[in-house]
Specification:
about 30% helix; single chain; 5-stranded parallel beta sheet; Metab_Enz_Cyan_OpOx_G3PDH; NAD(P)/FAD-dependent oxidoreductase; Arc Repressor Mutant, subunit A; Opine_Oxase_asu/HCN_bsu; 3 domains; FAD/NAD(P)-binding domain
Length: about 450
């Protein structure tokens, strides 16, 4: 299949970019792994579930309706259930390689001179004793179950960790009938207050969440953390404790909260696999872009969480800017940025940076890990094994990986890399992978040997 502009990812950034480029006459193909557009933020329940009020599960529902209607009425070609594993450079542009079918084993290709990477982000969960028990889910996982399947992970839940995602998860579960025993947030209120000016625009949204938590009688425990999850066959409760100003657990503050579900998350990281395989420059852990959302690889744009975690509103602004820029460059005209989108990007970017600075996980979380705490779930590598590797001289993620196999499993370190880096005392580093997801050998064998994979 051929197009002028391939957008990878149908979340807020990808949708905004596809619609903006299509409105300017560009032939756009929108590729996404999910069964329907929307991404995590606008994840929809299957039609067969008969959701009476799906808007109750979402924020900015009218924005989604406008984009959904725009897709239906426009000329964007949408390819769902397409799992992109590689973007290959070719003499005339790029070839996007994807897997389709029930087993994700059938190859599909889209060729175009320009590509947008709107690949989103993924959650970070820092380990603690008991975090592998059934009933312990990620905060985003609990939200996805509710939005996509109209089911809840349990009857009595604790929502814990750090970052703004915890608020919609706690209020969403409570509204769905779950008894939320507590919202346990490691961030201290004074840290947020220090960024009051940058976060001023978030006050109405924050007040709305506070009102809902109050209405559902959800206790909020700021500057607290989960010390341990308890249970044999599944989680039956958690121990939480207060944090001191140094980020360490304050002795004597522990309390037990009975629950059958723990939804936990410690922020998000950008998905950069495709960008890295194309050779795009990274700024820290995010894809580096210019004012038009262009990467340093000609013909490649990036927008949304891949360029830095900032939320749906920022992703919409970045996607709109990228779509307009790509349309102008493809048509050989001067870029025509939207002033409103540029202004929103600046304002929301400041808010995102402030939240990222304020909502850092506890500085000494690793001290709570017992040696038998599993760190890498795929390869069942424990904190004790990682510490033994450090005693042997390992000082970075890669060396720990070579000595322990941490990060060599199915998720390729997405779940454990942050924890391994924390235990090693080094900052997380991007993992360079040739493919963004596992690929059957048969698909690679059928690839044209004359073309190769760059």
């Amino acid at each position: 299949m051929r197009a002028e502009f391939v957008v990878i990812g149908a979340g807020p950034a990808g949708l905004a970019a596809a619609l903006a480029a299509s409105a300017r006459g560009v032939r756009v193909v929108l590729v996404d792994a999910a069964p329907a557009p929307g991404g995590q933020f606008y994840r929809q329940p299957a039609a067969g579930l008969g959701a009476g009020r799906p808007e109750a599960l979402h924020h900015r529902w009218r924005t989604w309706q406008r984009m959904r209607d725009g897709l239906a009425a426009g000329s964007v070609r949408t390819l769902t259930d397409h799992h992109v594993w590689c973007v290959e450079r070719t003499p005339d542009g790029f070839t996007v390689h994807a897997l389709t079918g029930p087993g994700q084993e059938e190859p599909a290709e889209v060729r175009a001179p320009a590509v947008l990477l709107a690949t989103g982000g993924y959650e970070t969960v820092l380990p603690f004793p008991g975090w592998t028990l059934p009933g312990v889910v990620t905060a985003g996982g609990a939200q996805a179950m509710l939005k996509g399947s109209l089911v809840v992970p349990g009857r009595r839940a604790v929502v814990a960790g750090s970052g703004p995602l915890l608020l919609p998860v706690a209020t969403g579960l409570a509204a769905a009938g779950v008894e939320v025993a507590a919202l346990v947030e490691s961030t201290a209120p004074e840290r947020l207050a220090r960024h009051g000016r940058a976060l001023a625009g978030k006050l109405p949204e924050g007040a709305g969440y506070a009102a809902r938590l109050l209405r559902h009688r959800v206790p909020v425990l700021p500057r607290h953390t989960v010390v341990r999850a308890h249970g044999d066959d599944r989680v039956t409760g958690v121990t939480v404790a207060a944090l001191g100003t140094d980020g360490r657990v304050r002795p004597g503050t522990e309390r037990h909260l009975p629950c059958d579900t723990l939804a936990v998350g410690h922020g998000m990281l950008p998905h950069t696999d495709l960008a890295e395989s194309l050779g795009c420059r990274l700024d820290g852990l995010a894809v580096a872009v210019d004012d038009e959302q262009r990467t340093d690889v000609p013909g490649v744009w990036a927008a949304g969480e891949a360029t830095g975690i900032g939320g749906a509103a920022l992703a919409l602004a970045e996607g709109h800017i990228a779509g307009r820029s790509a349309a102008a460059r493809l048509r050989g005209t001067a870029p025509d940025p939207a002033p409103a989108a540029l202004k929103a990007r600046r304002r929301l970017g400041r808010s995102a940076a402030a939240l990222d600075s304020a909502c850092a996980p506890p500085a000494h979380w690793a001290e709570q890990l017992t040696d038998d705490t599993v760190v890498c779930r795929c390869e069942e590598v424990t904190a004790g094994a990682v510490r033994a590797a450090l005693d042997l001289g390992a000082g970075d993620e890669r060396t720990v990986k070579l000595l322990t196999r941490a990060g060599m499993g199915w998720c390729q370190g997405r779940m454990c890399s942050t924890a391994v880096a924390g235990l090693a005392g080094c900052p997380p580093t991007p993992a360079r992978r040739p493919f963004a997801r596992p690929v059957p050998l048969g698909v690679l064998a059928r690839h044209d040997p004359q073309e190769g994979l760059s």
